[in-house]
Amino acid sequence: MAKRAPASLGTALQLIAVLLTSDFMAEEVEGIWMNLPASGTKCVSEEIHHNKIVVADYMIVSEDPYNGPTISIKVTSPFGNNLHQMDNVTHGHFSFTSAEAGTYVACLWIDNQNPGVGTIVNLEWKIGITARDWESVARKENIEGVELELRKLEGAVDAIHGNLLYLRSREAEMRTVSERTNARVAWFSIMSLGVCIVASCLQLWHLKRFFRKKKII
């Protein structure tokens, strides 16, 4: 029994790590198939938190990619900074660490202007813990088995904690905006009521003056 305990512990840790990392892989790995027309641009956006590792691969899905159309791609940050740009390619790869939180945009278009010729592009995003190369981490730090699973589990917990902090900050921002909006609506209602009261008093004063001039009252 004592000899089987470490194996049971390792199995349990592996199961927990797989469950946690699988949830994040479902949320933070996004594969997109895009139908690019012969002319025009298609863009895909992703909301990414601050200081997140982003890795992406893209390629043309074609039976003969060497004789088909080529594409151009441009990736920009929420502030409009150019993070990646390539022209006349059939496949590629880019990676970056998000410097600010917000919506990151990747736009793709076909270079060749052959009439009626479009193509399909596969774009795969990996964000956060799913973007890490765990094999390289294991080789670099000389860890394996339970230790590696513990590192994955630690990364998943850190990612969960980061997401909770992000959601808390977004909730605080939304609450602040809601409170400011409610205050502005309240002041606007008070001002509208005051204007209505002043207008009514002026109208009564005008009517009273008019009737007195006509000697009606």
From TrEMBL:
Record-linked SMART domains: EMP24_GP25L
GO cellular component: membrane
Main location: membrane
Spans through the membrane: 185-205
Signal peptide feature range: 1-31
Cellular localization per UniProt: Membrane
Keywords for this protein: Coiled coil, Membrane, Signal, Transmembrane, Transmembrane helix
GOLD domain ranges (all copies): 41-129
UniProt keyword annotation of Kinase present: no
Topology with respect to the bilayer: Single-pass type I membrane protein
InterPro entries attached to this UniProt entry: Emp24-like (IPR015720), GOLD_dom (IPR009038)
Pfam family, one: EMP24_GP25L
Family as reported in the entry's similarity comment: Belongs to the EMP24/GP25L family.
Name of protein: GOLD domain-containing protein
Organism annotation: Trapa incisa
Phylogenetic placement of the source organism: Eukaryota, Viridiplantae, Streptophyta, Embryophyta, Tracheophyta
